[in-house]
Design a protein that fits this description.
Distance between the termini: 18 Å
CATH class of the largest domain: Alpha Beta
Strand order of the largest sheet: 10-9-8-11-12-13
CATH topology of the largest domain: Rossmann fold
Strand content: 15-25%
Helix content: 40-55%
CATH architecture of the largest domain: 3-Layer(aba) Sandwich
CATH superfamily of the largest domain: Glycogen Phosphorylase B
Order of helices and strands: EHEHEHEHEHEHEHEHEHEHEHEEHHH
Number of domains: 2
Radius of gyration: 21 Å
């Protein structure tokens, strides 16, 4: 019987976004396969709260700075105490902490790094150093698009591999209870068109607003929602007001109950200018929500234009508006998109992501023994 590797996942943010959700999905699926795991996270973080409430094995440490040698020392200590075979940092901050643990505190555990964003690494000497560090044995990219971007900066191209993020495909079997319509007192006949993403530059809500403006001028009636929080909220609300849409677009904030809300949405209008993969799209595929999206980053690797939804161009509100119109006015086409998406999403089950990641762990553990 093959001895399974012992894994430490390092998650540094205090907040909860897609990367943290994916790390938890991975932990939960690997646990089903019998893998011993430990999550190392920041005190007071959303990850710590999740681990506490769901009974996940974890250690949390005070995070004083983004580059925190005390946190790094704790990583090394825990790895020795727990006889960890592989450390898996899930974000850039975690990656930095693991490099410090290796260089300053002699942590000899090999690293499996995750890269989920589709923009180049920084040109600083430290970024280039940490991405080419000798402790890294694999860099898991969430799409071919992400892998392609990293090619020029990674000296050992053999370290780069692709494992698509996965989702809980069965999480949306319940069609929802009309919570959103009830909360916002919506006419039951009006369609809901929404984006679900942080209010950041990468998600390009300005194009979302421009798309809504085009549709409103064309007489399209819908309830427009932006679910998410972020640094651009004030600027986006001001832009919405400038366009005369302040009474039309609802900035509804970050929702812990988003899984309950998604099945109520008629169309996801996903306006990202950069996107590693786009698991929100996969969630909507599983929930039976029609998807209209840009073709940013890894999105074309999960979407098939006019088979699983509609793909417009980045920063092209006209092309996105065309897709929304089709989804709202051609019910048979929309039905075919949803049917194709339901089939497509089966390729992105989180259990498949975990199995492929475990294969990587086992390959590394075997090579370290030799």
């Amino acid at each position: 019987m093959i001895e399974l590797p012992r894994i430490a996942h390092v998650i540094s943010p205090l907040s909860w976004r897609g990367g943290e959700q994916q790390a938890i999905y991975l932990y939960e699926e690997l646990a089903k396969l019998g893998v011993y795991q430990l999550i190392l996270c920041a005190k007071g973080s959303a990850t710590e709260k999740y681990c506490e409430s769901h009974g996940l094995r974890f250690r949390s440490f005070k995070k004083r700075l983004n580059i925190d040698p005390f946190f790094a020392r704790s990583i090394g200590r825990v790895c020795r105490e727990e006889k960890i075979d592989i450390v898996h940092p899930h974000d850039s901050g975690a990656h930095t902490l693991c490099i410090l643990a290796a260089d300053l505190f002699s942590n000899s555990c090999p690293l499996v790094l995750h890269r989920r964003v589709d923009f180049p690494i920084s040109s600083s000497w430290f970024s280039r150093y940490k991405y080419n560090h000798s402790s890294i044995k694999k860099i898991i990219c969430v799409s071919e698009a992400v892998k392609e971007i990293l090619q020029k900066d990674i000296r050992n191209k053999g370290l780069l591999g692709v494992v698509y993020d996965g989702i809980d495909v069965d999480a949306f079997d319940d069609p929802g209870g009309g919570r959103l319509r009830s909360e916002f007192h919506l006419d039951p006949t009006i369609p809901i068109v929404a984006n679900i993403a942080a209010l950041t530059q990468q998600k390009d809500y300005f194009t979302f607003i421009d798309t809504v403006e085009i549709l409103e001028k064309d007489g399209v009636k819908a309830a427009w929602f932006a679910f998410g929080e972020g640094a651009q909220r004030e600027a986006l609300e001001a832009y919405s007001m400038e366009k005369g849409l302040q009474e039309k677009i609802r900035f509804a904030g970050f929702r812990k109950d988003i899984r309950t809300i998604i099945p109520e949405i008629d169309v996801l209008l996903f306006s990202s200018e950069t996107e590693g993969l786009g698991t929100t799209i996969l969630d909507c595929f599983a929930a039976g929500v029609a998807v209209v999206s840009t073709d940013a980053g890894g999105i074309p690797e999960i979407m098939i234009h006019q088979q699983t939804g509609w793909m417009g161009k980045v920063k092209d509100p006209e092309s996105l508006a065309e897709g929304v119109k089709i989804a709202l006015t051609q019910p048979e086409t929309k039905k075919e998109w949803i049917k194709g998406a339901k089939k497509r999403v089966q390729l992105f089950r989180r259990s498949l992501t975990a199995k492929k990641t475990l294969d990587i762990y086992q390959e590394i553990k075997a090579s370290e023994k030799n």
